[in-house]
Amino acid sequence: MKAQIIEKDGKPEFAVIPYVDYQHFLELLEDEADARAVAEFHEAYTAGREFLIPDEIMRREVAGESPVKLWREHRGLTQQELATRAGISKPYLSQIETGKRQGTVETLSAIARALDVPLDVLTG
Predict the structure, then answer these.
(1) In Å, what is the CA distance from 80 to each residue of 61, 83, 89, 94, 122?
(2) Considering the domain 55-123 in this protein, what is its CATH number?
(3) Residues 45-54: pLDDT tens digits?
């Protein structure tokens, strides 16, 4: 790389480099920023401050399916099993899954604990 140095008051003030070198340095900076972001996420995930949502669940939820139902199925639970773990009735859980009832914060918190997911994953 050949740089042109521009001085001001006898001291280097600017370095002019070929554009191709400039682009290369930008790519290196972006790679470094990406690597830093990945390392920060990995650290947060390992420490339990981040939660991953499987692609299949995300796609189905975006399509309109109930996150409670999706996570219940993902965890391999029946409605009765989840209702029992959450301390609610099966009909109430069914109504939440079908959207006929929203569920109270307390109920949704109990369901989230039973599914081992953060509450905001179920409430959006």
Answers:
(1) 22, 5, 8, 9, 18
(2) 1.10.260.40
(3) 899 888 899 9
